[in-house]
UniProtKB/TrEMBL annotation:
SUPFAM superfamilies: Glycoside hydrolase/deacetylase. Keywords: Signal. Residues 105-285 form the NodB homology domain. Residues 24-43 have a biased composition (Polar residues). Residues 44-53 have a biased composition (Basic and acidic residues). The keyword Signal applies. Residues 1-20 form the signal peptide. Residues 24-85 are annotated as: Disordered. The keyword Protease does not apply. This is Polysaccharide deacetylase family protein. It comes from the Bacteria.
């Protein structure tokens, strides 16, 4: 009986030992399984990070290529805006003369004293007729945000903005410093509004000085006076009178440089002036083609 009890105890011990071993094995497998799962998750996370980096690098590369493409397009656009210079201003007659084989039968339209009251309407009429002109501005007339907007709109319509000095004073009555201020100040104003400095300069009353010519040259501006103009004279201050004389003036010839002003009667006659010149075979010169 005692031997049976000992034998039973022995069997119980062996059984309990086996259970302990199985539990340890299962625990080890669970630990190993968790470690394996953690390793897999870590590997997956690393792979995702790698993919994210690759996508970011690819996106950066595409952005750089896009920027380069846009830059190239911008350069091409700037180059396309460069118009061949076919004409130059004759400093003796102030006519627009062909440089080589350009058509000599042209007339240049210029409007002084802008933006007074009618310049924008004149520009809109010229735009409708698909012809160009130079609007010579006085700085003292650009005296409000509304007037600045007028200059910008005229420019955006495709017209050249010229410099007619700040105060419309006779430059021969001013000191050199005052002359420079009269000229450069307008260029600064126009550049602030349009982003471009004027390329053409017209002195009030056509009264240039040696010093004003020097300043104009330093500012890379072409000086021009005019061939003829009439709209400040009393007898031509109606639509019909100014249209007739501008088209039938004895001074109308190849390269004529027509002087007009920001005035109501000239604004009203603008379409008749253009169509009258064209009927006589004149091409309205594009200021962009003038050297």
């Amino acid at each position: 009986m005692r031997i049976k009890s000992i034998f039973a105890l022995l069997l119980t011990f062996i059984f309990l030992q086996g259970c302990a071993t199985d539990n340890e094995s299962n625990s080890a497998e669970e630990v190993n399984g968790q470690a394996s799962q953690e390793q897999t998750e870590s590997n997956n996370h690393s792979e995702l990070e790698k993919q994210d980096r690759e996508e970011e690098e690819q996106a950066e590369g595409m952005n750089e290529e896009e920027e380069e493409t846009q830059s190239a397009a911008g350069s091409q656009e700037a180059e396309s805006k460069e118009v061949e210079k076919q004409y130059q201003i004759n400093e003796n007659t102030w006519t627009v003369d062909p440089i080589s084989d350009a058509n000599p039968k042209v007339a240049l339209l210029t409007i002084d004293d802008a933006p007074d009251a009618h310049a924008l309407k004149m520009a809109q009429t010229l735009k409708k007729l698909d012809v160009k002109a130079i609007f010579f501005v006085n700085g003292h007339l650009i005296n409000s945000p509304e007037k600045e907007d007028v200059i910008k709109e005229i420019y955006d319509l495709g017209f050249a903005i010229g410099n007619h000095t700040y105060g419309h004073n006779n430059l021969k009555d001013l000191s050199e410093e005052e002359q420079k201020q009269e000229i450069v100040k307008v260029n600064d104003m126009v550049e602030e509004i349009t982003g471009e400095r004027p390329r053409f300069f017209r002195a009030p009353f056509g009264s240039n000085t040696d010093y004003s010519k020097k300043v104009a040259a330093e500012e890379n501006m072409t000086i021009m006076n005019w061939t003829y103009g009439y709209d400040w004279e009393q007898e031509y201050q109606t639509k019909e009178a100014i249209a007739d004389i501008m088209v039938n003036s004895p001074y109308l010839n190849n390269g004529a440089n027509l002087l007009m002003h920001d005035r109501q009667w000239t604004m009203e006659a603008m379409e008749d002036i253009v169509t009258g010149l064209q009927a006589k075979g004149y091409i309205i010169a594009d200021p962009e083609t003038i050297k």
